[in-house]
């Protein structure tokens, strides 16, 4: 059900992505995971102590040991962040709104402000809707800065346009000095892989989700 991306395995980072799970069962499988109430924003929470309130936003950063944080997705990008020295972790939900408003950039800027070296930051982007399936209309295209209206960010096939969300987020990370070799991007498309993943665009419901979680283990 869960797998650890390659960039985390080398440094024994406890970050994992799942295949689809029924929504009603997520609390059973992951009863102690802190998930934010996702609102397709660029709001980032930095947790310095356990907070029992409902966190409405789309990214969590923490330096707390043994606290598991996570996000739920069904086409959007699940992004897990950690540093090689296991000082800080982050979990991010990045749809097109969060991506265009720079949620990964904001998250990484906070992590860098904690004194973490860009060379030490590891980023894993889990299964999401890929550019093979993510057709977008003129209303969204108009929101893109001009530099993102060409390949590899926006791809034209026949008379349709397809957005590559992972490349937009890759740009944000590299722009802050994160080495591309530290960034792992899943090649699996949630829309293509019906047996493994749930896709809101394909199914038009939220009966299932993928779960992405990460923990700083106290070792």
Automatic annotation (TrEMBL):
GO molecular function terms attached to this record: copper ion binding; hydrolase activity; S-methyl-5-thioadenosine phosphorylase activity
Keywords: Hydrolase, Metal-binding, Transferase, Zinc
Domain of life assignment: Bacteria
Catalyzed reactions per annotation: inosine + phosphate = alpha-D-ribose 1-phosphate + hypoxanthine; adenosine + H2O + H(+) = inosine + NH4(+); adenosine + phosphate = alpha-D-ribose 1-phosphate + adenine; S-methyl-5'-thioadenosine + phosphate = 5-(methylsulfanyl)-alpha-D-ribose 1-phosphate + adenine
InterPro entries: Cu_polyphenol_OxRdtase, Cu_polyphenol_OxRdtase_sf, Cytotoxic_necrot_fac-like_cat
Record family assignment: Belongs to the purine nucleoside phosphorylase YfiH/LACC1 family.
Protein name: Purine nucleoside phosphorylase
Taxonomic classification: Bacteria, Pseudomonadati, Thermodesulfobacteriota, Thermodesulfobacteria, Thermodesulfobacteriales
